[in-house]
Specification:
Layout lengths: L28 E7 L1 E2 L5 E6 L2 E5 L15 E4 L2 H5 L4 E5 L5 H4 L2 H9 L7 E3 L1 H13 L9 E3 L5 E4 L3 E7 L8 E7 L2 E5 L18 H9 L3 E5 L12 H14 L4 E4 L5 H13 L3 E5 L1 H12 L12 H4 L7 E5 L9 H6 L13 E4 L8 H13 L3 E3 L14 H11 L3 E5 L1 E2 H12 L7 E2 L6 E5 L4 E6 L4 E5 L2 E5 L1 H13 L1 E8 L4 E7 L6 H20 L4 H20 L4 E8 L1
Helix pairs in contact: 4-8, 5-12, 6-7, 15-16
Length: 574
């Protein structure tokens, strides 16, 4: 009972923070892409309602030509690190590098050495992830990996119910997700194409998509990769028939390169090789790793066994087929080394057939063309798309995209997984439908998209960007360091080592600069020695002597050669 003289205290209402779901009067889901928008690769998206988050995927991208010394690109996940206590689940749609390749870096950043949060993935996806974690010295058992089927239901915290649905793609166990939230349903297609005759016989389960559409879809997030392509993406079975045809007609050895994770394509090649009496050898670390895991888990079938390169080298040419890495013209890949005669065990010879069962990722066209031209020069028959139908995309073309739009008839739309041109073309395609979305946004990494029952808008930004990975680790390379590397690659490097001792000595070395003759380097050496002697005589600090060398030499070389190399003076005290 209250004291008769004491008035009851009025409880103050907490004012919702700006950007919170309650701000603006309506409950909201926030969709926060940290990678994968306006680009190919680095796919990772956070979904938040109130104080709970689930994360979809965690991919990487490969460096572009102007990124010397960079091995991989991963998304910045400062937002997830800051809100790690809100994460209730991490869900993986499939096992491609652009969807799980960043996890050995991202999981320790967010959770440390072990994850209290369940990480859900299908059998093959988790098999590939376990291999990656072990490769990086991490213990898979510490990361709470939960195996699911591509059609399971997941409860992510109190607010998100996730109904996965199988979608055909260029890797087994691929899923889209129906995301049921307190404000409405979101359909995320994942990567997909609608293949009526997939290699493994497992077609897309569109019934869940249609059911969600019948109940009402508030937001569709869909794969925009092939939004510019009319028609349908060819079935994988059509590619299998063409591979069978060209392998059956090949007179000598056959070399095939494709994405190491394209288990369906590798299976088609193995089937053709077995049909025509060829022994299959594999060469290349990623090809061996992916195939070993797929074999162990039953996703790849062979009648005989896979051979080593040494085991097939002495067989007759018509009995040999080699699956190799190098579909993107990577300098250290097997196909590149074969093309440029740098492989230690084998060389391309006239009469060999080389099949590039892949298409170049944007940015890799030049590298792939160099390899193709070199293979021709060595006398090989080179078969590649579109001249030969030996590759089909794993992504849906316009007619398949229209079907998804018709099945879902979403109120709002967010094209995803593609460069800006793909997103915009998908937006135009959606707007051409008989029942177009009320609103379509062109997504950007780091944006916070606020979805209510009635509105869909950009409501802010979180820290985002890219982290560069090289042999030294993650984050050691900054934009400034990358700019220096590009500068050195374009203009060259001149290193001047000066010893400030009783007997002063100067040495000059140039790399990637000009074909510097004795006179030019001699003049640089003379200028540096003159500055060194003056500095010793006047008892200048080593930093001043270094500057006295740097600026005159820089000016001289610019005037003498028209180039602007990186000048690196190193002054050592005696």
């Amino acid at each position: 009972m209250e004291h008769p003289e004491r008035k009851p205290r009025r409880r103050r209402k907490r004012r919702p923070q700006e950007g919170s779901p309650a701000h603006g009067g309506q409950e909201a889901v926030e969709i926060i892409p940290l990678g994968g928008m306006g680009e190919i690769g680095k796919n990772i998206t956070a979904f938040r309602y109130r104080d709970e988050i689930f994360v979809l995927d965690g991919g990487l991208a490969f460096p572009e030509e102007g990124m010397p010394g960079v091995d991989l690109l991963i998304p910045r996940v400062d937002f997830l690190v800051e809100h790690r206590h809100q994460i209730k689940a991490w869900v993986l749609t499939h096992g491609h590098e652009d969807h799980i390749g960043g996890l050995p870096f991202l999981l320790p950043m967010v959770f440390g050495k072990e994850s209290p949060v369940p990480i859900y993935g299908a059998r093959l996806t988790l098999g590939l992830l376990r291999g990656k974690l072990e490769e990086f010295g991490l213990r898979p058992g510490a990361f709470n990996l939960k195996e699911i089927s591509p059609d399971d239901r997941i409860q992510a915290g109190r607010y998100f119910t996730l109904d996965l649905f199988r979608m055909t793609h260029s890797i087994p166990d691929n899923s889209g997700v129906v995301i049921r939230t307190p404000i409405g349903t979101i359909v995320h297609t994942g990567d997909f194409k609608l293949d009526p005759t997939p290699i493994d016989g497992k077609v897309s389960h569109l019934a869940k998509v249609a059911q969600a559409g019948a109940e009402g879809v508030l937001l569709l997030i869909a794969d925009a990769t092939n939004a510019e392509r009319p028609g349908y993406t060819p079935s994988e079975m059509e590619i299998a028939k063409e591979l069978d045809r060209v392998i059956g007609r090949a007179p000598g050895r056959v070399f095939v390169t494709t994405f190491a994770s394209h288990i369906h394509r590798i299976q088609s090649v193995i089937w053709a090789a077995e049909k025509y009496g060829r022994k299959v050898a594999m060469e290349g670390r990623s090809m061996l790793k992916f195939s070993r895991i797929a074999l162990e888990l039953g996703y790849l079938k062979v009648k005989d066994r896979l051979y080593t390169l040494e085991e097939v080298m002495d067989l007759p040419d018509h009995q040999v087929l080699i699956l190799a890495t190098g579909s993107q013209g990577q300098p250290m890949s097997v196909l590149h080394r074969l093309a440029f005669e740098g492989h230690a065990k084998m060389a391309i010879k006239p009469g060999d057939t080389v099949i590039l069962s892949s298409s170049p990722i944007p940015g890799n066209e030049e590298a792939v063309n160099r390899v193709i031209n070199r293979l021709y020069a060595l006398g090989a028959y080179v078969l590649y798309p579109p001249t030969y139908r030996v590759h089909a995309s794993g992504h849906a073309s316009q007619e398949e995209l229209k079907l998804i739009l018709n099945l879902t008839t979403p109120k709002f739309f967010l094209p995803w997984h593609g460069e800006v041109r793909h997103q915009v073309n998908f937006k135009w395609l959606a707007e051409s439908m008989s029942r177009p979305p009320e609103k379509t946004l062109i997504g950007e990494n780091g944006a916070v998209y606020r979805l209510t029952r009635d509105t869909f808008e950009k409501a802010g930004e979180v820290p985002h960007g890219v982290l560069y990975v090289d042999g030294l680790g993650v984050g050691d390379i900054t934009e400034e360091i990358l700019a220096d590397r590009r500068h050195m690659a374009e203009e060259g490097l001149v290193v001047i080592t000066a010893l400030a001792d009783e007997e002063p000595v100067v040495e000059v070395v140039s790399r990637g600069f000009v074909k510097a003759g004795e006179r030019l380097l001699g003049e640089v050496k003379r200028m540096a020695l003159e500055a060194l002697l003056a500095g010793i005589r006047e008892k200048k600090p080593l930093e001043r002597i270094r500057d006295d060398i740097y600026y005159p030499v820089k000016k001289f070389l610019k005037k003498a050669t028209g180039r602007d190399p990186v000048i690196l003076p190193v002054v050592i005290g005696g």
